[in-house]
Write a structure and sequence with these properties.
Number of strands of chain B: 9
Largest sheet of chain A: 7 strands, mixed
Largest interface: A-B, 20 and 25 residues
Largest sheet of chain B: 6 strands, mixed
Structural class of chain A: mainly beta
Radius of gyration of chain A: 13 Å
Helix content of chain A: under 10%
Strand content of chain B: 35-45%
Oligomer: heterodimer
Number of helices of chain A: 0
Radius of gyration of chain B: 13 Å
Shape of chain B: globular
Helix content of chain B: under 10%
Distance between the termini of chain A: 40 Å
Shape of chain A: globular
């Protein structure tokens, strides 16, 4: 069965950095686009970024462009999100999701809290 | 781009049907057939229940159905059951990005 397991969240001060990871299993990772989606407390999901099968095509939400970098390692079946210059507004649960026209399978998420 | 618009709440008694709307624009909901719906119980990750407007993933009961007319998509839950009480979110492809709705809290009375 499809499994996506995120890690790397935590408490960080404004202006700080974090790197999120997502370990995939149960499907052929290199056959799928992958996404990062976040959900602030009490809010709807917000798409953050997605990356093509080879990693050659990448899109970002305007709210994170220039600060976040998505990447993948198909050999390791892993997805990453490097987050720099973090702001309080970036506080959310971050989900890794398989993407096929729309996000279908989501991980359980990792909480990122940006606070001084 | 703005989030898709959903009513904040909906309710129905067991056995009844309820429909939740999701309004976007011709650049998202109205422009593509990649409209999806997600069910989220407290503390859990969103679960896909409808994809490509009206398709159900394997294992999702046929009590859940989706449709679209113009810039508005709809999710209908028929034969409401207690376990259907959850938050429901719509999503749409929007050309190199994806939008989500603000969510509808479904209460089973």
């Amino acid at each position: 069965q499809v499994q996506l397991v995120e890690s790397g969240g935590g408490l960080v001060k404004p202006g700080g950095s974090l790197r999120l990871s997502c370990a995939a299993s149960g499907f052929t990772f290199s056959d799928y686009y992958m996404s990062w989606i976040r959900q602030a407390p009490g809010k709807g999901p917000e798409w953050v970024s997605h990356i093509s099968r080879s990693g050659s095509t990448i899109y970002y939400a305007d709210s994170v462009k220039g600060r976040f970098t998505i990447s993948r390692d198909n050999a390791e079946k892993s997805l990453y999100l490097q987050m720099n210059s973090l702001r309080a507004a970036d506080t959310a649960v971050y989900y890794c999701a398989r993407y096929y026209g729309q996000p279908d399978y989501w991980g359980q998420g990792t909480l990122v809290t940006v606070s001084s | 781009q703005s989030a898709l618009t959903q009513p904040p709440s909906a309710s129905g008694s067991p056995g009844q049907s309820v429909t939740i709307s999701c309004t976007g624009t011709s650049s998202d909901v109205g422009g593509y057939n990649y409209v999806s719906w997600y069910q989220q119980h407290p503390g859990k990750a969103p679960k896909l229940i409808i994809y490509e407007v009206s398709q159900r993933p394997s294992g999702v009961p046929d009590r859940f159905s989706g449709s679209k007319s113009g810039n508005t998509a709809s999710l209908t839950v028929s034969g409401l059951q207690a376990e259907d009480e959850a938050d429901y979110y719509c999503g749409s492809y929007a050309g190199n990005n994806n939008l989500f709705g603000g969510g509808t809290k479904l209460t089973v009375l």
